[in-house]
Amino acid sequence: MKQAQFNDKQLEIAWEEIEQVFNSSGMVEPAPGFTARWNERLQLEKQQEDRRQAWMLIIMNLVIALGFLGLIAIQIAPSLSTGSSLLDIWVDMVSRMIVNLKMVGGVLGTLGRTLPGVIPTSWLMTGITALGIMVAVWASMVRQHIRNQGVSYEQV
Amino acid sequence: MHNAEIEWLRRAQQGEDAAFSRLVEVYQKPVYNLCYRMLGNAGDAEDAAQETFIRAYKAIKRYDPSRKFSTWLLTIASNYCIDQHRRRKLPTFSVDEFENPDIPEKAPGMEARLVQNEHQQQIAELLDELKPKDRSAVIMRYWYDYSYEEISEALSLSVSAVKSRLHRARKTLAEVWSETQYEAVSIERKQYETSAI
Question: Terminus of chain A with fewer CB atoms < 10 Å: N or C?
Answer without folding.
Answer: N
